[in-house]
Amino acid sequence: MLKSASDGTSTAQSQPGGGLERWAERHLRYLMLAPTVLILLALTIFPSLYMFYAAVHRISPNPDLPWEFVGAGNFARLLSDAQFHVALRNTIVFTVVAVTAEFLLGLGLALLLDKFIRRLTFLKTVLMIPMMLPPIAVAITWKLIYEPQFGVLNEIMYRLGLPLQAWAGDVNLAMFSIIVADVWQWTPFIFLLMLAGLASLPVEPYEAAALDGASSWRQFWDLTIPFLKPVIAIALLLRVMDALRLFDLVFILTGGGPADRTKVLSLYIYQVAYRFADPGYAAAISLFVLFVTIVLSTWFMKRMRLAD
Amino acid sequence: MATRTLHRRSRTKEVLTRLLAYLAILVALILTLFPIYWIAANSFKFDIDIFAVPPEWLPRNPTLKHYQEAFIQRPFLRYALNSFLVAVGTTIVSVVFGTMAGYALARFHYPWQWRKQVSFWILSTRMMPPIVSIIPLYLFFNYFQMLNTKSALVIAYTAFNLPFATWMMKSYFQDLPVELEEAAVVDGDTRWGAFLHVALPLARPGLAATAIFCLIISWNEFLLSLIITLTEQSQTLPIGIAGRVTQYNTYWGEISAAGFMACVPIVIFAFIVQKHLVRGLSLGAVKG
């Protein structure tokens, strides 16, 4: 396709304009790509190299002191750092539970709307609102709802005759509270992607299946799910990548507490870098997170053939 | 006779399923809207009524006191303007460059399988958690004396939005038929001209969806802004709001007013662009 044009020989010569213009036309495929590649190189290679350099040093909070080379020392610390293990476990629990819930609810809701109220785009937009709101506003909204003394959630519990809880302040419920707020905000994202996927389903296979007398359950498993597979894969990939870097909600709602029950990796890195003033170690943890994210997503994308 | 009862039973079942479905959608709507309503309701209450037990479902003595505090006594308008400028700047840069790169990756041939490698690398830069790049970016902006500037935020946010924009536009262009551009080139247009005059207009829904996502992501961003900006002249709305949750006091009323005002433009915007959002996505990015 466009072989002659992209080779830039025959057509370029027939074009009007000066030499520069002709040169630009001939190298268009590189020129159009260049700004993006250069910007991303500058903004990702530099931080990565710097992080690597910082991660092998002990950096004193005093900027006048030189950095002390410690080799793999900061990485070795990861093995015995109990707080890091807690943060890692919290992040995994959060990611698995929140993304699973968001996926099931988002897909279910999209199927319901697609089947029963197709025309009402107004309703779809209303259901998408939470994902567009600033996470900080979401965090504060939920903080207000969870408030143990005057929060509305405890009022509802009271009316229903259920025991009052401290929610985000309770050791056993804090993570659950974070997950609920996250599910509230991000189910709409899955919902939106699934709606878009459902909107592009072909009609013919369903007609054929209906003629063969396939139940709607069978049609769902044998037609809808396979067709949606690429959309599902992208939705899950994006949500997992975002869940691994959860910060705002925890920062505002619980600050990582109580008893470190909601301390996730991003928050721990933030604390190590700024509160404990140990940027070298923070860099080592960051590299660990980056490494895990890249390995996971690469494996997933290869498996789902998303990069082709 | 037998077939008629069977028919009737399946009709009852159908009506019942329909009712259950409507009920589920209604519950989802209430759960979606209630928290937004709640923050709005609280923003119109006096402090004492926010703390009322049992809570006031409707503000009994509505007041604009908190709006006055947030927007006249405190610089929330300034924060909102900063957010707006940063979001628009980031969106323009990301969409312009991302569209060009996406088009190039969708249409051109490169030596040595570059296309696949470059696309994959661009995508992989999006995987870097913001917290990872914060310390180097801080030092980077410090070195160029750009801390506390809106340009620094635009640059930082572009790093996160550009891969996304490129990726979305690439899959969008791949779904467009190439023949129209070929025809334009045969008729004497340049390749760049074919891109500008033929491909770009066709890609409008994809462009709209991409721009919407970039705008929302940058309007909402928190962590990078928290680290890079400290002055009123540069801080964005999310930071301004978070600043009212202090160690000693949480200014619920003021926060609710500012939080609600941060949501309003986004919600209005969502209704204006809703058509593009689903259409742009269903033709483009989601197909992988």
TrEMBL record, chain A:
Source species, domain of life: Bacteria
Organism for this UniProt entry: Sinorhizobium mexicanum
Protein name: Sugar ABC transporter permease
Pfam families: BPD_transp_1 (PF00528)
Entry keyword annotation includes Ribonucleoprotein: no
Transmembrane segments annotated in the record for this chain: 30-53, 92-113, 125-145, 173-199, 220-241, 281-301
InterPro entries: MetI-like, MetI-like_sf
Keyword Transmembrane helix: yes
Gene3D superfamilies per the UniProt record, alphabetical: MetI-like (1.10.3720.10)
Similarity comment text for this entry: Belongs to the binding-protein-dependent transport system permease family.
Subcellular location, record wording: Cell membrane
Keywords noted in UniProt: Cell membrane, Membrane, Plasmid, Transmembrane, Transmembrane helix, Transport
Bilayer topology: Multi-pass membrane protein
From TrEMBL, chain B:
Species this chain originates from: Sinorhizobium mexicanum
Gene Ontology CC: plasma membrane
Keyword Cell membrane included in the entry's annotation: yes
InterPro entries: BP-dep_ABC_trans_perm, MetI-like, MetI-like_sf
The protein's name: Carbohydrate ABC transporter permease
Protein origin, superkingdom: Bacteria
Membrane-crossing segments per the record: 20-40, 84-106, 118-139, 207-231, 251-273
Keywords: Cell membrane, Membrane, Plasmid, Transmembrane, Transmembrane helix, Transport
Family to which the UniProt record says this protein belongs: Belongs to the binding-protein-dependent transport system permease family.
Intracellular or extracellular location(s): Cell membrane
